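#dry-run=false #mode=assembly
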Amino acid sequence: MSQSPYLRRESAGTLASSVRLAGRTSPIRCHLFTTDHRAIGRLYLWLALLSVAIGTILSLLMRLHLTWPERVLPFHGPVLPEDYLALVTIHGTLMLFFVLTTAPQSGFGNLILPSQIGARRMAFPLINAVSFWVIAAALVVLLSSTFVPGGSPISGWTAYPPLSAVPSAGPGQGTGIDLWLASIALFAIGSTMSSINQLVTVVRMRCEGMTWGRLPLTVWAWITASMLSILAFSVLLAALLLLFCDRHLATSFYLPVGDVVNGTLRAAGSHNGSPLLWLHLFWFFGHPEVYIAILPGMGLTSMILGNFSRRRVFAYRTMITTTLLIGFLGILVWGHHMFVAGLNPFAGTAFSISTIAIAIPAAAKVLSWLATIWRSRPSYTTAFLFSLGFVSLFITGGLSGPILAQPILDQYLHNTFFVVAHFHLIMAMAGIFGLFSATYYWFPLLANRTLHEGLGRIHFVGSLLGAYATFLPMHLTGLAGEPRHYAQLTSIPNAAGDLLARTLPLNRGITWAAFFLAGTQLVFLANLLLTLWRGPRSSPNPWDATTLEWHPNLSESDFGLLPVVYREPSQYAYQNGEARALPQWIDPALLPSAPSTSGDRGVS
Amino acid sequence: MPATYTPSKPDLDKSRLHDNDNGAGRRPPTDKRTGGGGEGDNWQSRPQGQRGPRERLGRYRMGLFFALAGDLMFFIAIVSVFFVARTTGHFDAYNRYINEWLPTAIPPVLWLNTAVLLLSSVTMELARRRMFHEPDVMEEWFGLGRPISRRSAPWVAATLCLGLLFLAGQALAWKQLAMQRVFFASNPSSHFFYLITYTHAIHLFLGIGGLMLALWGLYASRQLETRQILVDCAAWYWHSMGVFWVFLFLLLAYFQ
Amino acid sequence: MLSTSSYAQGCTQCRDNAAATPIATQHAYRTAILLLVGVAFGIGSSVVLVGRRFR
Ligand code: HEM
Ligand SMILES: [Cu+2]
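#status=ok
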């Protein structure tokens, strides 16, 4: 196979067909207002990087305030309770929507998905660009909420009414939350568009031989998440619309009668609604949303573990099924967020059972990951390490899921830091580890360079230790009774105060760990900048991978023939102890000798 | 490893570079299952980008259907809230259970509107079928004018008028209700009446935009396939809005 | 399983609230939940079925 890395570099980030005009088109046009999926994918990643940086700083401020409440912030003054809640809200919204939804699904989805299925572009390039700009606008709107009178909203990323529906509920609940609503509505529209695009691309634009059974698990994860996005974000949009009506059009979908807000009884009007409705609609969206955030990481983990241990992914077909199953079951379980909200006990039981049922496909995934690397001799690259970290965090975070899924236990745990520990391990940390894994793995395709492996290892070890040191103790403070969304742990003059005071030493430890975790990310940033500045050129397929995005003629160029796919991903020929990769695109007729693959069952 | 790049033959072969094989200069743009190459030459088994003149159409249509699926969920969410709100009440100060829901009387003009919308779906379907009428397609392919656009445009225009008529009828209904002092905020049931009719009307405005785009495309676009896509997608969207309306209307009329 | 989990809602406010919900409303919630789930499942399954047609 002849390679042409220079060609790949030149056409990076532009519509390759405009390469010939490159002298004439302005860089802004090429990189910003482009319809090229790779350029758009990069834009998504930059957007996510910006959001994650802001979100991290906000989280550190929260930790600082929790442990040293009397500290005064420079340029700000004392941190009021509403400031703390605003921090929680913007942190959660940024991280969940603008980092964990955009980066894996739209960022890497755009960068990698088309080439992984052997397509030159997405099905609707223009819509793709539009959806990015809608999401970018959503980010701007969200961040602008800090600068309006009253400041940012304070009702968390879940925006429960009646507090979110009543402007007098708090400083940020006026214009601030209106902007929040607008931002999330834009985000919902943008995500729906980009999901439609991805689905159509995968259904209709796979190259020859790329049957459903041969699709990489990453692609399966992306389309399952896309399907969930289309279903979930539409419902969220309806919920936001109703909330908007409650706020501005004097309706009462979510407003109960006799509602006391900030000490005043709200006028009794025709308030006939129930906040429970918002909870249903929101979590109908919210639970699929957390799977949208994690599914791409799951798919990538399977592929990376297989690639670096030179093994087939264990039970490939079953992994496809479990991906879909997690998607379908994910629609069924939203009630587990509502056990203490006055849900009908029968419904509570039903949701509890469906929630525990979803642990089955999740456990199957874990088993497949472990079986894939079991007694292999993997090469411990940084990408591989981060995937291992993903597995570890997923298991640790997953163990607390079935505990929370029991209404009796959740009764106590619901509003405590135990839940915070659960979802930060399984979603936030596992998701971020998935993203890092993807970054280290695909960086050669992004920038034609490889990130420094030594720094990568330091980054990995620091992040793993930091993640566990930060979030494991939260289980304990939660069990001890530390509430979430709570601005103050100290100087409360009663028994509750004593209880909270006893968690303070642990909480200080958590704060130190959080700073350590965030500090470790500077290693990554340094690595990123150093590599972009003068990192080593990567060879065309540095990881000896088997999936199509590493095809020599496809990666950054529009030229050449479309590839043809002959087998499932991660297939290897074993000859005297050596595993030789059989990329998906290599014609069996061109192979030197008949290799002893372990069964190619790629026809669907 | 060569450092310079010399275009080879397939690189220069334009038809493989871009997949808009619209058929205009090659095969007739009709939906034949074979590409004319005889046995086994099935468009569906070719690589993507080479699957005949309906490939792009199929892609757009599928995208539209996914979008409509999302839209369906949007309306279903509102409808499910409708069911709950209809029965929800509260206890007043005397511990009596009060349900404030008073059904909103449906202005009779809505029946007429429904008929108009259904009729507009018929005209739209006629327009859509016209786009794929094979003798006309062949005629255009032979270069004998543009019978497709000529025959389809009046039906699209008719749909547009009927759509506007429907919206005018809706506006009339809102006015009638306002004269009876039934407003958006009046009662839980009126919340839903207005919410449903407003959101549906917004969707129809989008549809009208689509129809205008299609009409413009019928005159401006040179590629037959682009025109087919525009009219086809506008039609499916329009039909779906018709079906959604029938369900929403029945809900408002009989399930309040 | 049923009996133990059902008593989970130990917090009397929530329990009372749930118990005070009239049958008609409970019914309506059930309808609404099934409607949402049913349609979402229908759409999901039809996407899978349609997908299968494209090899
Ligand atoms: C083994 C499977 C899992 C089970 C049984 C499970 C169960 C639960 C339960 C019952 C809650 C509600 C706790 C409460 O609010 O009282 C919860 C919260 C949460 N879970 Fe999970 N979970 C699982 C996996 C996941 C995964 C894979 C993710 C994300 C990738 C996730 C993300 C979350 C989030 C974000 C919350 C908190 C949302 C909030 O209140 O802000 N969970 N989980
Ligand atoms: Cu959940």
